Amino acid sequence: MTLTPQRGTDAESASDAGTTGARDATDPAPGARSTRAKVGAQPWMMGLAVAIAIAGAALGLNGVLRGWAWYSPVLTVVFTVSLTIAGLRALRWRTVFVELGGLASFVLILTFTFFRPQSIIGFIPSGATLSQLGRYLRRASETVLAESSPVAPNAGIVLLICAVLGLLVILVDALAVPLSLPATSGIGILAILIVPAMVKPQSVGVLGFAGAAIGYLMILGCSHWFAPDPRTGADTARNPGQFKRAVVTGALALSVSMLLQLLIPGFDQGTFPQGSRLNPFGSATGLNPMISLGNSLRSPSGDGRITFATNAPTTPYLRSVTVDSFNGDTWAPDDREDTRRQGTGRIDSGLESAATELRVVTAINTGQFTSPYLPAPYAPEAVNGLAGRWSWDPATLSIKGVDTNSRNQQYLVLSVAPQLTPDLLAQSSAPVQGVPEQFIRPPDNVPEIVRKTADSVTAGSTSAYAKAMAIQRFLRSVTFSYSLQSPVQGGYDGNGLSVLADFLTQKSGYCIHFASAMAVMARLEGVPSRIAVGYAPGRPTGATVSIAGQGALPEFEVDARDAHAWPELYFQGVGWVPFEPTPSRGVVPSYATEGAAPSGASTNENNDGLIPSRAPNPTPLPGAAPLPLPGAAGQASPATQLLPVLYGTGAVLLLALLVASPQLARGRLRRRRLNSARASDGVPPALPAWAELRDLATDYGVAPHPSETPRHFSERLRASAALGGPDRLDGAGHGAVSALTRDFERRQYGRPDAGDGTEGAAGRPDGRTAAVRIAAVQASLRANARPFARVRATWLPPSVLSRWRLASLAPFRALSRRAQLTRRGVAGSWTRLRAGLRRVRRG
Amino acid sequence: MDYHRTSVDEVLPGSQGFQAASAAGGSPATRRLGPAPAAMDAEAFRDASERILTAINTVIDGKAGAAKLALTVLLAQGHLLLEDVPGVGKTLLAKTLARTIDCSVSRIQFTPDLLPSDVTGVSIYNQASRSFEFRPGAVFANIVIGDEINRASAKTQSALLECMEEHQVTVDGKSYKLDEPFMVVATQNPIEMEGTYPLPEAQRDRFMARISMGYPDKDSEMEMLETHQATSPLTRVTAVVTAGEVASMIATVQHVYVSQSIKEYTVSLGRATRESAMLRLGASPRSMLQLLRAAKATAALEGRDFVLPDDVVIVAESVLAHRIILDRKAASTGETPQSVIRAVLARIPVGTEAAGAVGGDRPARGKTAAGSAAQLPNHR
Fold this sequence. Notes:
The structure holds 2 protein chains of 2 kinds. By secondary structure, chain A is of the alpha+beta class. Chain A has helices at 5-16, 32-37, 42-58, 71-90, 95-114, 127-146, 155-176, 186-199, 206-226, 241-263, 289-298, 422-427, 448-458, 464-476, 486-490, 497-506, 511-524, 638-679, 686-699, 710-719, 731-749, 767-784, 787-795, 798-842; strands spanning 306-310, 318-323, 341-342, 357-365, 373-374, 380-384, 390-392, 399-401, 410-418, 481-482, 508-509, 529-535, 539-547, 551-558, 563-571, 575-578.
């Protein structure tokens, strides 16, 4: 036991403080001194760890972006920012300035890398930088919207990625070091990994995962190694058993996560987005329109509006792409990059139909619709007026951009439509020849129900046409219903063979399900098939478009809600023939209609109420004058005009209420307290008055500490600048605070029988005095507060906000407490089990 | 009861002592002063305490805090341990406190060869009366100053144990009551450890508070050099209160009210020290009792008849620091018992709103106050 004189003095002065109960509630944590004293290698190691984590996770973006050229600016930005932060921390700058310095270095390095010509002396941003930034960001947003992965690393998208990664460096560093939440900093790294997980079919990939994991472990290790637990001392960080424990825990966690996805049913089925699967060795690439089709249909607003004018007698389907391989978990279009042909001036449609052909001219304006694939009526022979380079696939006639996309394209498609008749199709009975194997081969592992259904449906049909009609009839029968929601609820949204099995069981789904059911069943029955993805015939806008040599043609429009998929079956000697198995969507072609089924006129009528049925008549209005705003046209009734006003007013009121709600809550609480103080209905006025005083002080920045005694708090409040400080003894406010304190102490700690406790002004123990005192304190606080503090205390009172925060976090706290208890319980039983095993082994 | 004079090595004049109850048994609270002396009114109490403190402060310069704490311990019926380097006035404080009160005082200089019987007393065979006669030891006084208590052997130290806790001496199977008020003021020297027997934990726990005097500040030291050159300052001190007055003051302290929330605060304080990872041994339940008694005395000295959390906070460090034992790791990182107590105080929420109305005789609390209790974060 060593007692130094110095300590004696400490104790002395503490007891000297006597009645004031002086005690430094904000005494720094005991360990803080020692960690501050030595800086050492910690900032550098931590900076390196953060940089490795971010740069490593960014490796996963390869495949989202093409090639590796984008990686060097990323490395520059990430390492510059993290090392700047490390350097400033090594210089022992204050935390705020360290983060601000990191931010400054982030801006400078971005300017230096991307805006050198538009900046002052190469790295200081100027006005020109901002306008260039705007251009880059527009470019980036177009890239994100339009292109399919991997996208070409243009300056816009690389700038965006560098900026996000640089900010993440600052965020991760701030979480790991000043906020001491190294484990939580993984959120920032996870944010990077989500991008490849969602975009790339092969998910994050080994490289990105390993890089991120190494960096994250380094962050955890650094924070543990350099910041030992202040309670237990320095040597815990170098506990020898720790590494072993960490390895065992990590291995256990990894194997559990690997096993879990095998055990949980449906995890590798269509319910989950494809990127969520752990598939580090996948090989497929390319954007999959089939994945997004369901979402497009469900989107409440029809964006991606395409307008087109055509001279075809019936409104054509617009086809983007086909899907022909029905293997694997997810069906995706096969781009066949090696057999694609460049240029769309002349497309060999390959039709050898015996039928008469109808030449159709279609002028299409894609507007904001962005996709790598070009929508066009089948079968295109030439596409003119396109911007950028395009290629087409001889096998499927899908047109795809080489370095561009469909956004803002206006082009003219010349297509041929064979005039097919049932007779013609029925005659096609020759064995299929000259069709690539991939359209014929039935998928592997077809679920039993699909095969059975196909066989039972087509029993008795001999020709290919009869089989096709039987399948279409089956799918269009009343037992099947069109629904966008039931696949989601039933967990079979998406595509794939397992989804198909579910669909045939539930008998409810949307176009993807119907189309793929027909395509797969046709193949099983020996009819080559593929699924076309595009747009169902749209609605006439009422306008006309003049095309040279064709005159004024009626204009139609389609948008995301018209997105559609339909099967195309191959008939020898006829070619690819589209069918329409989806009930209540699209138009059943004349050659595929049943004798008496008058379903030809139905277009998209039943869409689960998502699309209001308007203009059911697809025939264009002859001679209609072009309207200036085709989309906005319509005779709106006064009621519908009033509706937005009502909604707007409601929204404004709601917003106002939201903004004012903390203030309202605060005011209500105050009134209740003071009223109860005044009413003296059993509640001693001192208690609510004291609670009100605490909240008032909190609102003006002098929050009571939970471990602070009332007297200490009261003295601190009176000494603080909030009440004008100790020298500007503001009579009313200071007096009121000490009187309230005195009352509260007497009430809370004094003898219960000592009377009410409120020393009223005229000796009356009523609550009015308390209210008067509170008002005095409030006036004094308001008078001394700065304008900002005054506004905050009125509109966003911290006392209310902190209470709300606590209330909202309560479930989490309860949960974590429960988790802690469980953990302890498990640890305890594990220890007991191990001890028992040991005893058994010993004998 | 005049035997105690014979064996004390220093007895102050006029230290007759007041009538002590010799009735055995009873609970510690009632046992103290048989027919309980009447409690003083606030005015008289303040007056008496002012007199004592002024008298002490004229002797010891710049140590008002230590003086007040010593008086607090006296009024709370505890024992005081003064621990500091030599020459800062430990013994002087003890003697001054004893001298300001008109009561019997004895001083024991503890040495390794001091025997238990020197402290407690011994039975001697009287040839004339042909019977054993009890010769009381030095402990038979109102205030016992044990100088350098850690120099005595463990046997002698433990002889003090019974006296301090039970306020009685047992020799040859016979128990003798000690006078009330009874207070042991022990001093010990922390740096000269050779040839000492550090007080065992059990004995440390029996002292209500430990005070470190600390060096005086510059002005006080200058003043001391000027005024205390020629004569011992102790000679100027005369008794300013009688033992009866002290007994009344003690009774007053006993009447100080402790609310439910204060009790809860004290208990949570004690529990926190026991659960603290930095401590090998936390505060005992006995120390909680003594903490509360010291807080009551502090409240009374402040002129209040009820205890505030501030009173607990003020005495907590002195009352608890010498009873707790640091964990070896915490000790190696430079923690002291004092700093641990401070850390615990900074963590435990004061029951300003959550508790307090449990007593039953208090009116039920309204929704308002209960609602605001939600903002107190739940510690642990």
